[in-house]
């Protein structure tokens, strides 16, 4: 039963929808009266409250809040292109103390989970502080815990390569997986050409008396054109190495209106642990 409860706790990552916040913005007025900028700044203040309770974070709550107060946030309606040539949600300019955010991308984050806007704000303010969060390592640590391993699945569909990336997170310091962070997109996790704004959905498939035979049903949007599903073993966070699973195209329906899954191919995944 204890193991089953632990497995169920892995699925609660997407339900983290409330954090204690600092109600007083402390005079932060760097949004120029823009309500979207004010929302972004409020997320930064919220993050400072989390930092005040975190251990081993590379900045203090006071330093982070000072950065929030002194950084201008500007929302734009044009594409933002990173130095690597990628179309991104936001850009930060440390020398100018300026963060630019694409307005449409900010709206879309409402569909990506309850902490998506908060994580983007943390990521951009850390950039202003010149703290490396290039792979969202520190922002993920602050929100979800310490990364203690990962599993990456690669596949192709209609000539395009897609990926599903899973990070195993330890929230209580016992070096065991308590939750997972999942992302999907095109290319590879190391060099993505596109990252989906909608987070993958996870459910536990407890189809056997033995919890070791249970599976995680993961459904995600990718390649901008299709929705996929795969059943991954619950032991992926415990056993390193490569494994294969079946990849299905979903979002389909039979003539009678029942949901349908179309097998595409086997998907190769690899789990890496410390």
Task: Explain what this protein looks like in three dimensions.
This protein is of the alpha+beta class and 274 residues long. Helices cover 23% and strands 37% of the residues. The chain contains six helices and 14 strands. It has helices at residues 2-10, 35-51, 61-70, 103-108, 116-128, 137-144, and strands spanning 72-76, 80-81, 87-88, 90-93, 98-102, 146-157, 160-170, 179-187, 192-195, 201-205, 215-222, 226-233, 241-253, 259-272. The strands form three sheets. The protein has a nine-stranded antiparallel sheet with strand order 9-8-7-6-14-13-12-11-10. The chain has a three-stranded mixed sheet with strand order 1-5-4. Strands 2-3 form a two-stranded antiparallel sheet. Helix 2 runs antiparallel to helix 3 (61-70), helix 2 crosses helix 5 and helix 5 crosses helix 6 (137-144). The longest helix has 17 residues, at 35-51. It is globular, with a radius of gyration of 20 Å. The model is unreliable at 1-29 (pLDDT under 50).
Which ranges are low-confidence, i.e. pLDDT below 50, for 5 or more consecutive residues? 1-29
Q: Give the ordered list of helices and strands.
A: HHHEEEEEHHHEEEEEEEEE
- The end-to-end span amounts to 27 Å
Percentage of residues in strands = 35-45%
Strand order across the biggest sheet? 9-8-7-6-14-13-12-11-10
The shape is: globular
Structural class: alpha+beta
How many strands appear in the DSSP assignment?
14
């Amino acid at each position: 039963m204890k193991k089953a409860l632990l497995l169920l706790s892995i699925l609660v990552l997407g339900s983290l929808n409330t954090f204690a916040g600092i109600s007083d913005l402390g005079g932060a007025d760097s949004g120029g009266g823009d309500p979207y900028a004010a929302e972004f700044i409020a997320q930064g203040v919220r993050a400072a409250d989390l930092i005040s309770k975190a251990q081993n974070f590379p900045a203090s709550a006071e330093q982070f809040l000072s950065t929030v107060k002194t950084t201008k946030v500007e929302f734009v309606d044009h594409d933002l292109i990173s130095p690597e040539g990628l179309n991104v949600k936001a850009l930060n300019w440390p020398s100018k103390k300026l963060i630019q955010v694409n307005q449409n991308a900010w709206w879309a984050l409402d569909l990506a989970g309850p902490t998506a806007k908060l994580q983007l704000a943390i990521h951009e303010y850390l950039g202003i502080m010149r703290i490396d969060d290039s792979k969202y390592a520190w922002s993920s640590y602050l929100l979800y815990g310490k990364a203690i391993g990962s599993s990456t699945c690669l596949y192709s569909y209609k000539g395009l390569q897609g990926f599903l990336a899973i990070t195993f997170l330890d929230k209580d310091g016992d070096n065991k997986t308590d939750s997972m962070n999942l992302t999907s997109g095109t290319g590879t996790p190391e060099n993505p050409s596109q990252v989906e704004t909608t987070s993958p959905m996870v459910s536990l498939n407890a189809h056997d008396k033995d919890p070791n035979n249970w599976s995680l049903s993961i459904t995600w949007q990718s390649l901008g054109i299709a929705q996929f599903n795969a059943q991954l073993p619950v032991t992926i966070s415990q056993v390193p190495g490569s494994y294969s699973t079946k990849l299905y195209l979903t979002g389909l329906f039979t003539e009678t209106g029942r949901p349908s899954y179309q097998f595409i191919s086997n998907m190769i995944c690899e789990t890496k642990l410390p």
